[in-house]
Amino acid sequence: MNDASIACIESLRDFFSASNAMELEDAAVRIAGSVAAVIPPDTDWTAVEYEFNRLFVGPAAVPAPLYASAYCESDRVLMGKAALEARRLYHQLGLAVPREGVIPDDHLAFELEAMIVLKSALGADAPPSQDAKALHAWFVHEHLARWLGPFILATRTHASPGGVVALAADALAAWFDKELNTTATPLPE
Amino acid sequence: MSQKTRALSRRQFLKGISVAGAASLLPLRLLMPYSAEAATAFREQDFQIFRNACPRNCYDTCSIKTFVKDGVVQFIEGAQESTFTQGGLCVKGYAYPRRVYSPDRIKYPMVQDGRRTGNWRRVSWDEAMDRIAGKILEIKEKDGSLLGLGLTKYSGNFGITNYGVEGMMSSLGYTTRFVGTPCWPAGIDAQNYDLGDMWCNDPEDMVKSRYVIIWGANPAWCSVHSMKYVNEAKRRGAKVVVIDPVFTQTAAKGDVYWQPEASSDGALALGMARHVLDLGLVDSDFVNNHAKGFAEFAAYLRENVTVEWAAGVSGIPADQIREVAEEFASADPATIWIGYGMQRHTNGGASVRAIDALVAMTGNVGKEGGGARYGHLRTWGFNYHALLQKQPEGAKGFIGATGPKGEFDFTKGEAASFTDRTVNINKTAQAILDTKDPALKMLWVSCKNPFAQDFDRPKLEKAFDTLEMVVSVEQFFTETVNNSDIVLPVTTLFEEWTVNASYWHYWVGINEQAIKPMYETKSNIEIAALLSKKMNQLAPGSCTFPQDIDTREWLEKEFNQGIYDYLGIKHWTDLKNGPVKARLASSASWSDKKFGTPSGQYEFHSELCQQNGHDALPRYKEGRKPYDEFRLLTPHTKFGLHSQFINLDWMHEFNKEPFLYMHPDDAQEKKIADLDMVRVFNKVGELKIKVKLTSNVAKKSLVIYEAWFGQGNDFNVQNLVDDESADMGAYKTGAPGVAIHGQFANVERV
């Protein structure tokens, strides 16, 4: 387990699950720290909150939904197969989304938290269990890889250039790129 | 990716692997420990099947079977038990799961920092209610009453428990209510004057008709399930005549199509009546024994009406009028389906009365397979528990009015010192601007999208800008939400318990909660309960609405023995087995010829109508005088129900953008080519739109289907429609209707 990597995922998780300007600021500052970026001190965090909601939350139609199903289904619809895959993964980890079915299981923040669990499992076991390795590899290659790319593209397309949301998207992209490149493809027995 | 991996099912791969326990030592924020036992209900192998009912403002009010797996609505279908729904839904109905699972759904309570800025912030329900309750209390303190608080609500969700929105308002005190309906009020009044109620035959008995006239309705789009009865009647030999200023898909199915001048329907019906009279085809038993005033009506026809005159007014050739009139009067039974479109005129009520008279004089009222079909509310005898809430002790209100009423108001008004203040829902903008002492300061919007449905949009925006707070309860972001300060996310039909009845057929179905309410959505009555809790926290005794709501219990409270007897069920839970049809003595309304009028007879001559400011007889009344070069018609679109559904991806597949439809000859004169961008404009406002040329539209007419929004589309026909009143509607619905089709405009290429 790499503490820096976990901290980066945690900050991304907290950013994409933020519900107000204060939470966004807290998470964004940690994201910036993890990627050696600088957030201008005069940043208007309320404006960041408006942008975050415009892109991801609503109430207007969102250009970059935070849910895997929006990108993995043939139609743009939530609670599809990707959500149930995520649910099953959490169950395998002995976890579940609170009040299962209320928030789609494939919300980015839940998935990032599941990634933290998986990476912790990999780091804690010596040597890591085959199950943990396989599950992690599946999650990276078969699940996240299917939607993070389009999600990051949608975010970058609609976010203010050089803004905090774009910074978070870049950090997510950088982290996942590394994760993808350092994770062997799943080859179960 | 290797071939081996690709071939592997993701689920198979996940099965059998467990890393449970890995999370036990981690400080997780979001995910919680998983217990297989707790989640069993959502992991059943088989589908759970739930009963739902379409709650929209639609003839068909479909009974739905919902298939749920893993706690997710997988698909829905029409209930087979209902012979009306017959296992099928319309495109809109099949799209319902896409409303629940659309990424664009409104998920959380949010506040907008400045209307139309798009600067939205999430707030907790508690904070939202704190702001709302605080404003209500501020108004009360400043004005000494809550008349500065207004409610506009209509047909976005006709589930009976949703009348809890009105109940919520009553539980706060006496408020200002937008009353009436933009939909069908002129016709409701007309049928009440003629027959004593709006009560139509069972639509399923149309198969018995030998002659069907569909007059100003387009069921091929707006009541798809009714078409099978029209088609079956036709298969059995009936002739089908369609009368509509637009050549619709329904018209395409007819044997005869008439494209009259819009608003000339009364003249056409009277011309036919005159010919029936001349031929001696009047049903003498009916007009002599069950009707009042036929002699006066006949005299009016003889003295004032000729077929040639009717042909001149309507544009339908006299020989065709004679032919159809004779066939109609000779067929037994014969029926006319009176659509809502034809009464949305300044003479709409008078026109409906003329058509009623034609049906009545031919003996087709009270007859199976006959009837002047408009609508009914016979299956709506619920308790209205959610609606009937008491004002708090000491609440002050409006003096001098009788309080609100509407077509769905089944309550018996009690004498009270105060009442709510009522204003005309069809003049929303003007009412907001004009209402004083006290002025409207706050507006609650639910089950309604005023910016798509209310008239004179430019004026509406100005009116909204005078309000200090606008709260919208919505599922999707509409122009109304854009003009709101607070939006509250409301549940879909799959997430709440309620019951639904139709205003057309006689089936009633329950609506079960099939899935958990997603995100932070709440039903209308749960929102009311939450507001009540907050009001009472801030000012004890300020709201009487119950503070803890179980939507299933509230559904149960809507039923009574009368409903059970009418439906032939012992308990509402019987409806879990499927929808039930009312036990009808006859498929015909008024089969016993005992009418609800003051005389107890069909009234060709209605003193009540006269007392209410109209002609006692169904005399011809001219429509609105043109005020611009073209008539403008803005009917319902095919894949939407007003502004609902229109934003969904499936609908965009079919209807990517709105168009203006105009006749090629008119276009040539205006130097407009197919698919040109044009500006349509009149005294109200303007809009820019692409044009499609078609002879389905009459010359000198412009047709634009209403209500498009979403995906960057800010098109709005209400930029061109003013709030001119229809002639009738105030008697039964509290406010006159509106002349939606009595509109005019001009067009030019841009």
UniProtKB/TrEMBL annotation, chain A:
Keyword annotations of the record: Chaperone
PANTHER family per the UniProt record, alphabetical: CHAPERONE PROTEIN YCDY (PTHR34227)
InterPro entries: DMSO/NO3_reduct_chaperone, TorD-like_sf, TorD/DmsD_chaperones
One Pfam family it belongs to: Nitrate_red_del
Name of protein: Chaperone TorD involved in molybdoenzyme TorA maturation
UniProtKB/TrEMBL annotation, chain B:
Organism expressing this protein natively: Desulfomicrobium macestii
Protein family (similarity comment): Belongs to the prokaryotic molybdopterin-containing oxidoreductase family.
InterPro entries (alphabetical): Asp_de-COase-like_dom_sf, MoPterin_dinucl-bd_dom, Mopterin_OxRdtase, Mopterin_OxRdtase_4Fe-4S_dom, Prok_Mopterin_Oxidored, TAT_signal, TAT_signal_bac_arc
Oxidoreductase listed as a keyword: yes
Quaternary data: Heterodimer of a large and a small subunit.
Classification via SMART domains: Molybdop_Fe4S4
Taxonomic placement: Bacteria, Pseudomonadati, Thermodesulfobacteriota, Desulfovibrionia, Desulfovibrionales
Oxidoreductase as UniProt keyword: yes
Cited CDD domains: MopB_3, MopB_CT
SUPFAM superfamilies: ADC-like, Formate dehydrogenase/DMSO reductase, domains 1-3
UniProt KW keywords: Iron, Iron-sulfur, Metal-binding, Oxidoreductase, Signal
Domain 4Fe-4S Mo/W bis-MGD-type: 47-104
The protein's name in its UniProt record: Anaerobic selenocysteine-containing dehydrogenase
Record Pfam families: Molybdop_Fe4S4, Molybdopterin, Molydop_binding
